[in-house]
Specification:
four-stranded antiparallel beta sheet, alpha+beta, two-stranded antiparallel ribbon
């Protein structure tokens, strides 16, 4: 086995077998519609970017949301083009929801007017 093969094998084992914290960078856009809260993409561990992620409003449980991963439409169904382990799915979902909620808070703060009265008081 060459040195390259050894290094490649070690890297492969680290990526596939090692349970490590995921480093996720969200690029979400707050775009609320009847069915959706926002959309965008995430980069996972600086290696993989998943585009076409959406945070959807649940029709079955109003007030709840779920993560919709990219699909391709067929005539009568959808083909999943992205699947995630439950742990990764949960981490991605938490990260994108946090990003969207921060955008919502910033938007609401920007919309509110703050008025301050300044009075000079003679001693």
């Amino acid at each position: 086995m060459s040195e390259w093969d050894k290094v490649f094998e070690e890297m492969k084992n680290e990526l596939l077998e090692q349970k490590q914290q995921f480093h996720i960078i969200p690029k979400m856009v707050l775009h609320e519609t009847e069915n959706q809260l926002g959309y965008g993409s995430v980069t996972i561990n600086g290696i993989v970017t998943v585009k076409g992620i959406r945070v959807m409003k649940s029709k079955k449980a109003p007030g709840e949301f779920y993560l919709s991963l990219p699909t391709i439409a067929r005539e009568d169904s959808y083909l999943e083009i992205c699947r995630m382990e439950p742990e990764l799915y949960h981490t991605v979902f938490k990260t994108v929801v946090k990003d969207i909620l921060i955008q919502q808070m910033n938007q609401k703060t920007a919309e509110e007017e703050i008025s301050v009265d300044v009075k000079l008081i003679d001693k």
